[in-house]
C-alpha cells in the first residue's frame, strides 16, 4: 500500500505545530511571525493552528513554555555531584550552555519573549518562567544569590552572543567573542 499516509494524532499534530512555531518565532520574533507561516511550516492550515492554540499570543506563550521546559531539562541533566561545592556546581551547570549554543532556538525564543514582555500576558508568563529558571539554578547548585545572579548574567551574555551569531556552530569568527568563549570554557573546566 505505497503512498498511504499515516494519520497523526491530535497530540502529534499539536507538537508538530509547536515545533514549527518555536522555529518561526526564533527567526522572526513575536510581532513579525504570522500564523500562516507557522501553519505552512507545520503542513497544516492556518485555521487549524488557531483551532489548536487559540490566538497567536497563546501560541507564542506555548512556544515560550516549551523553550523554558527545555532549558530547565538541560539544567537538570547537568549531573551535578551532590558533594560539589556551589562554585563547582555552577561550573558544571555552566557547561550546559554548550547545548544553548547548538540549540540556537532556545536562546532566541527566550530573547523574543523578553522583548515581547510589554504585552501583559506574554510578560506575565515570561517573568514567571524566567523566575523559575533563576530559582532552579540556585536550587541545583546551592549557590548564594549573588553567584546565581552572576551566572544568569553570563548566561544572558551567551544568549545575546548566540543571537548575534558570534557563538555556536554557525559563529562568525569575532575576536572579542572568541576571547569570551575561551575564558568561559577554561573557567568551566573539562567536561565530564
TrEMBL record:
Keywords linked to the UniProt accession: DNA-binding, Transcription, Transcription regulation
Any one Pfam family match given in the protein's UniProt record, by short name: TetR_N
Location of the HTH tetR-type domain: 11-71
DNA-binding residues: 34-53
InterPro entries: Homeodomain-like_sf, HTH-type_TetR-like_transc_reg, HTH_TetR
Domain of life: Bacteria
PANTHER family linked to this entry: HTH-TYPE TRANSCRIPTIONAL REGULATOR BETI, HTH-TYPE TRANSCRIPTIONAL REGULATOR RUTR
Protein name: TetR/AcrR family transcriptional regulator
